[in-house]
Design brief:
single chain; disordered N terminus; globular; 436 residues; alpha+beta; five-stranded antiparallel β-sheet; Phosphorylase Kinase, domain 1; three-stranded mixed β-sheet
């Protein structure tokens, strides 16, 4: 873990990001020139190599810069449906590269934002117990005896994020253009808007309170309470709730029956968020969850939430109902209604859609119960499908609102696999979509 402060020099960050954008752009240009002389098989192989090589460049630079650069990379690393799987796999390295900033710096930040700091806080632990791309979390005790978790933003992170935006957009658009001719602007707007929301901890506090209200009658979900008098734009203080870590929860330490229950809770959290609450906890990083031995799940980090629009929710429900009923031939047109189609409004061909439906039909089979991870080659099958369809999907058009919903669904797919969660998932899915 690096203990370096994120660089706040606008010029230095401009040079790094601008240089990265230039290297990625030059790489793509040279590939376009050389592609003219290659066979079709050779073209696809070289295209994959170029994607991975440039993704590695992106990871190295974004990991150094942290801030918006690192956060955007982390967001995109979970876009299994949006990015080629090889690129997503490389970007996932950014999930492990969060910085830690010295305690003296963070204590200065919190004292500058909480006017009554000395009156409110009895003790703030010097060692952060969690770190992310825009802030880190310290345990603390208030003078009234409450144990709390305090999320503190890195110095000048607001300025850093806004300064990075232009160069990030140029660099990511260059990478995106290698595998898609779709309009990048809506995708960038969606990523940018979610990122700007995350740097306002007051907004996160409101998200957290609203989620708690929506789950008041859902006992298996545990959400920490906000300590409003000890929170500010760059400081979020919450009750400290401790549970079983994701690493332990996914290990052999706990019985599979309990893991199945945790998996069901995560599964329903996403479907409830999309189809019932229309407010989705949209950061599926497993570090944002802790587990209790009675089957409940603690949910942390409400900086990234997504409010799915009604049209999108109805479209998803219609597609899922058609899949459950075996009406496959209707799905390409339902995708068009959703806003997913090839250039000119052309529906996706059945040969692109059907292999994915085969996979998800197996997951949603009536019997026997499906275990996430039972098909050890499933992820490789998805990679192969992605590469087989790379050319067919190059002009794919889709609404920007699906970016974070896709991120959430794909991320939790991985979480369920780590747990080996087993169940008859079909009934749970049907319960939520039938009510739409």
């Amino acid at each position: 873990m690096s203990r370096d402060r994120p660089s706040t020099s606008a010029f230095r960050r401009f040079v790094k990001l601008g240089g990265l954008a230039g290297r990625v752009g030059a790489s793509l240009l040279s590939e376009q020139v050389l592609e003219l002389a290659r066979s079709e098989d050779s073209k696809e192989e070289r295209k994959t190599e170029t994607l991975v090589r440039n993704a590695i460049r992106v990871v190295e630079t974004l990991g150094e810069l942290k801030g918006a650069a690192m956060k955007v990379g982390q967001m995109l690393s979970l876009q299994v449906g949006l990015l080629p799987p090889e690129v997503a796999a490389v970007l996932r390295a950014l999930q492990k590269n969060a910085p830690r900033v010295p305690f003296e710096v963070m204590q200065y930040e919190i004292k500058g934002q909480i006017e009554d700091y000395d009156r409110l806080f009895a003790h703030l632990e010097p060692q952060a117990f969690a770190a992310a791309s825009i802030g880190q979390v310290h345990r603390a005790e208030l003078r009234d005896g409450r144990r709390v978790a305090v999320k503190i933003q890195y110095p000048a992170i607001d300025y850093i994020i806004r300064a990075d935006m232009k160069n990030l957009r140029v660099m990511l658009q260059a990478l995106f253009s290698l595998f898609s001719t779709a309009d990048f602007d809506p995708i960038w707007k969606e990523v940018r808007d979610r990122l700007l929301e995350e740097i306002d901890y007051r907004q996160e506090a409101e998200n957290l309170k609203r989620m708690a209200e929506l789950h008041v009658d859902v006992p298996e979900i545990v959400i920490p309470k906000v300590v409003e008098e000890a929170s500010a734009h760059g400081v979020l203080t919450m009750e400290y709730l401790e549970g079983i870590s994701p690493e332990r929860a996914c290990s052999d330490e706990f019985p599979q029956k309990l893991k199945n229950q945790w998996g069901r809770v995560l599964f329903e959290l996403q479907f409830r968020g999309i189809f019932e609450h229309r407010l989705l906890h949209a950061d599926p990083n497993l570090a944002n969850f802790a587990f209790l031995d009675d089957g409940r799940v603690i949910v942390y980090d409400f900086g990234c939430v997504k409010r799915p629009p009604d049209k999108l929710v109805r479209g998803y429900a219609a597609i899922i109902r058609a899949a459950l009923d075996g009406r496959r031939d209707e799905i390409p047109e339902l995708l068009v209604d959703l806003g997913v189609f090839k250039e000119g409004g052309v529906p996706l061909p059945a040969e692109v859609v059907d292999p994915y439906l085969d996979i998800f039909s197996e997951i949603l089979r009536p019997e026997p119960p499906y275990m996430f991870g039972e098909d050890e080659e499933l992820y490789q099958k998805l990679i192969d499908l992605g590469m087989d369809n790379l050319s067919a999907a190059r002009d794919l058009q889709f609404p920007e609102d699906i970016v974070f919903i896709d991120r959430c669904l794909a991320g939790h797919f991985g979480n369920m696999t780590k747990l080996g969660a087993t169940g008859v998932w079909r009934g749970l899915v049907a319960k939520y979509v039938e009510a739409v």
